Amino acid sequence: MMRRIAQAWSFAAIFLLPNYVDLTSEAGDERMRVAVPLTRIALAHLTAILLVAVFFYFILAGLRKLKGWRRIRWSLMGILPVVLFIRNLSVMPFSVSVLAIATVTLVWYAVLLYLIQGYPKFAWNLGRFGGNVLAGFSVFALIMTFQLVRAALWRPGPQAFSHAIAAAPPNRPRLVWILFDELAYKYAFEARDPSLKMPNFDRLRAESTLYTDVTPIAYKTSRAVPSFMLGRTVTDIEYTAGNRYLVKPADSGWQPFDANASLFGLAKQLGVSTSIVGWYLPYCPIFARVATQCYWSNEDAQDRGPTMLQASFAENVWFPLRMIFEDYAWPSRAWTDDARWNAEGHIASVKDVSQHALDVLSTSQADVIYLHIPSPHPLAFWNRRTAQFAVGGSYIDSLDYTDRLLGRMLDILEKQPRWGATMVIVQGDHSWRTQMWRPQPGWSAEDERVSHGGTWDPRPVVMIHAAGEQTPQTVAVPTSVMHVHDAVAAEIRTIAQSAAHP
User: Fold this and answer.
1) Please, are residues 310 and 299 in contact by the beta-carbon 8 Å criterion?
2) What is the CATH number of the domain that holds 166?
């Protein structure tokens, strides 16, 4: 009996691994991206493992009582390894082609059939060995269960903090640095779709310098943002269970992220106040000792697969199991449901971060305001025709929302006494990653049309409005997006000098 329980537990842990792997990863992907405890999410995954294990145990117990158990056992020997292999393709550190999967499956079936027909005793013993191997994976299941329990007990760093900032004179320089995640130059400016109007980007562009040939430094936000902050290209990151943020710069090995060496650390050293509103990365835990004000959040479902913080416990247990069933029985329905679930999580992120960004612009007296907005980052969350949040839109719809949000930001800034002394930087951390999103649920017919079949252009937007600038300028020479780091550092020093010599 213990052997059969071990088999059921092992099967459930392996079968469901893609759903919870981010919670158990030493890279800390899921811990890094949420500002609240993961207790309900981890418990939902543990419950799902229990349900699948119980189901597997009793199904096999029933099958063993049938007269045809011997033939059924042969079928299970052929099916289960293939099912577990295919289920875990997404967590493998390398890609496996459909041809390779089909070839391995056919070879396995051929070998098994040959053994059953020619060497039945050996095949039967092979089956017993396979059962023992599956039971032996209970060690793996135990480790994963422990990791999920640890994730349930994990507590994040601060989601927000705020220290008082004295009002500054109107002539004191100020920097507003807006990072619109996945903002692509080509689709915002160079080849804007005729159906899309972006009056607020055009409004700012008319009095800013636009860089038309920007070279990105990273494909992912988690690498690009720390690179901007440090002025060094970061190639990898980790976030430990103890909330330590580790980075691997291109020119050295793993090391703790040094907030004092960042742009916000520079501001702290020079007496320049800072306010952060962030998404996706643990801004407040990272910059707790150097920033003056901070808020961050992330409600996206796509990184905790697939569960949502705002969903009920029952939904977080049931939806991932339902998605597995739909993947095999009704793929088109699974595709639609996955896209809807992820879009709803992203809508929650966009609403929350956007509102906090507008609130900070309206109320904060900080000399440097940094806003990391989860727009126009997919999945699409907006309908530009109704001007409402909605599932099923496109990247062009998301650009429309981004433009509207920028307009509200500019309206706030232009009414403030310090507007004449304010520098505004608008940038993308990377471009629209069409090659990554095209195979994913949520890719729309309009995405396909606008991107010309997923053709990728790597250039993010970089647009800088210097204080008092009133005419458009263009920089057409190749420019690294790291130019933003240098511009921010220079402006921080300018603000500090102004404060020292009012």
Assistant:
1) yes
2) 3.40.720.10
pLDDT tens digits, one per residue of 305-338: 688 888 899 999 999 999 988 988 898 998 899 8
The answer on 339 and 307 residing in a single domain is yes
Residue type, 139: V
Q: Which residue has the higher pLDDT, 337 or 290?
A: 290
Dihedral sign (CA 214, 205, 266, 372): negative
CA-CA distance, 18 to 30, in Å (whole number)? Answer: 13
Of the three residues 130, 153, 176, the one that is the final residue of a domain is: 153
Distances (CA, A) of 309 to 44, 194, 283, 479: 11, 38, 19, 39
Evaluate whether residue 17 is within a structural domain. yes
Q: How many Å separate Cα 416 from the centre of its chain?
A: 34
Q: Which helix (H) or strand (E) holds 39?
A: helix 39-64
Q: What is the DSSP string of 255-270?
A: EE--GGGSHHHHHHHT
Q: Is 471 exposed, middle or buried (0-12, 13-18, 19+ CB in 10 A)?
A: exposed
Q: Nearest-CA neighbor of 279 among 259, 300, 298, 304?
A: 298
- The answer to whether position 277 is within a domain reads yes
Tell whether pTM > 0.90.
Answer: yes
Cβ(308)–Cβ(344) under 8 Å? yes
* Containing structural domain, residue 210: 160-220+273-313+331-500
Assigned domain for 309 exists: yes
Q: Helical H runs in 119-209?
A: 120-136, 138-153, 185, 199-205
Per the CB < 8 A criterion, the answer to whether 269 and 285 are in contact is no
Confidence (pLDDT) at 94: 76
C-alpha span between 355 and 405 (Å, rounded): 10
Helix (H, G, I), strand (E, B) or coil at 422: strand
Give me the amino acid identity at 232: R
Asked whether 304 and 24 are in contact (CB, 8 A), the reply is no
Domain boundary among 131, 153, 175: 153
Query: Is 321 contained in some domain?
Result: no
Q: What is the CA radius of gyration of the chain?
A: 26
Residue with tokens 């053709």: 455
Q: How far apart are CA 470 and CA 475, in angstroms?
A: 16
CA–CA separation, 245 and 157 (whole Å): 11
- pLDDT tens digits, 79-107: 888 888 888 888 877 777 888 888 888 88
Cα–Cα distance, 429 to 219 (Å, whole number): 9
**C-alpha 142, offset from chain centre:** 28
- 2-15 and 120-136 helices cross at what angle (nearest 10)? 70
